[in-house]
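Hi support team,

I'm filing this because I wasn't sure whether my run with nicotinamide-adenine-dinucleotide finished correctly. The job status page said complete, but I'd like someone to confirm that the output block is well-formed before I use it downstream. Pasting the exact inputs I used:
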Amino acid sequence: MSFAVANLVRRGVSRSFAPRVAQRAGVSAFLTTGLRATPRRYGVAAFSTKQESTTDFDPEAVTAMDKQAPPSPGGDFRIAIVGAGNINFGSDEGPWNHSFRLEHKLGPRLKVTALIDPSEKRAKQVLKTKCESFVESAYKDTKIFPNAEAYIASLKPGDRPHAIWVGSPPAYRGRMEKNRDLEVVLCRELPDIPLFVEKPVSTGPVDQAFEVADLIKESKTLVSVGYMLRYLKVVQKMKQILEDNNLNVMSINARYIMAYEHTAKLDWWDKTQNCGPIIEQATHFCDLARYFGGEADLSSVMAHSVEHDEPAGQLSKIPVDESLIEPENRIPRVTCATWKFEKGAVGSLTHCVALQGQNYSTELDVYADGHMLRLVDPYNSPILYFRRPGDDHEEIVRYQNDDPFFSEVSNFIDCIEDGPNAAPILSSYEDATKTYALTWAIRMASERTANAKKNSAN
Ligand SMILES: NC(=O)c1ccc[n+]([C@@H]2O[C@H](COP(=O)([O-])OP(=O)(O)OC[C@H]3O[C@@H](n4cnc5c(N)ncnc54)[C@H](O)[C@@H]3O)[C@@H](O)[C@H]2O)c1
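And here is everything the job wrote out:
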């Protein structure tokens, strides 16, 4: 991000933006009152951060792909996919792979009519792999387009997709500027076509992301954003405990310690590309913190960092040549932030680029009077450790075969097919934009502190 844009965002966060978020504090009710449903199959209820919402979480709901009934027969379900990369087509980096889950949700009904990606080579490669497999029928007629405009220009009335699945880099979306305004183009040219959009919603100025959110809301386009951890059963269980006991959350403490040894994308290490690990990665935990704690008061955010040029920030196994990145654009190794939630609780986040090997160490704790809810390892093996009032023991809650990626895909398809009350969608575009705002506020606060320290040393 350029200095000018960073300044724009900084102004937005510290002045106009924070009150704007406050005004929007009740907006998640849009998501939850509009889309609440009895979760017969997927075990997730459309909870809001409002205390009056009810919990109808079903721990028995089947969420694993291999435990689902075979997809029902029916007409074609046409999808245009944006981005031929890891999130949509899978990689060794993690369990994400939206196309795989769409195939299992829709079976032979799935028809991927378009794959939009400026890298024709990558698009051809993933289509070749699909066409050599048993899912060939979904991809044999897929056309490749370099951008959304070319795709839209080619559309004939019978080709209109039932959904557009966006997994392109966030640098090309969530803004009002040409070529970075994907959602604006889609809502204008293809209104009424539901959009699945990956996190984070953008890498651009926060106020532009809110403009996009407003346009989406006005167009009444159904949108689901990929904050899949909300769909975890243990997360829904935590929500249920908080709501059933009418608890006021006192503190939320998130700890995200990543294993960096195999993070070999140069852009990830460059703040001008991926915006840094809070906006790109810890966004999932900032989102969960908001899910449990409500809106954060952005003006209260304070943060410290360990930067790349400090003794404590030296890492011995960085898998890229970091010297290719300008020193001022290198990511911090540690970011520690605290803030107040508007409802009074204190939030904190520690993000650390420290571990080697493969597995991250992640945990999010929620405290309320007499209660401790400790969510451990939500990515790999989610467990909830739960302490009740008047008791010293920690109960353990664990659900087998829970696949939050499948739940978010499945719920979205059900809403498209059976109406917006068919299944809960837990992250709207506007709600996801508030998470984006919190992550920027944390990055800005840590940079302010680091710069102040440098200036005082000079
Ligand atoms: N929810 C999760 O757990 C999760 C996991 C991985 C990635 N993601 C998100 O998914 C998004 C994509 O990440 P990825 O890992 O798939 O990246 P990637 O680099 O593997 O793939 C991105 C693809 O998009 C293409 N592309 C570039 N510009 C484009 C444009 N303007 N229009 C269409 N396609 C374009 C690239 O050529 C590439 O094929 C990011 O926002 C990332 O944060 C989310």
